[in-house]
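check these tokens.
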Amino acid sequence: MNKRNKDLNLLVLDMQGIENRLREFECKYRLRSSEFYRLAKEDKIEQRLDLIEWLGLYEILQTRETEYRQLLQQQVEPVLAALNKMPLPV
């Protein structure tokens, strides 16, 4: 397994762990994380330790998703370049 694949696999595992924790908050408070985040950014949510954790995890997930898209793009570009260089079938 090359470094990019390993990085991508570790990133996906990390994201899955964060998503599982976010689902726990969503079930507990019956509120989707994206909606909670919007409300928190509008200062409509009080600052409590568990809610700060929820907010932080959501922001970390957003960062990880950006990293995931960038790594995936790096892996896809060489494949697309090779495909585009292949001659068309006659």
Q: What stands out?
A: Residues 37 and 59 are 9 Å apart (CA to CA). The mean pLDDT is 90. The helical segments are 3-29, 33-41, 49-85.
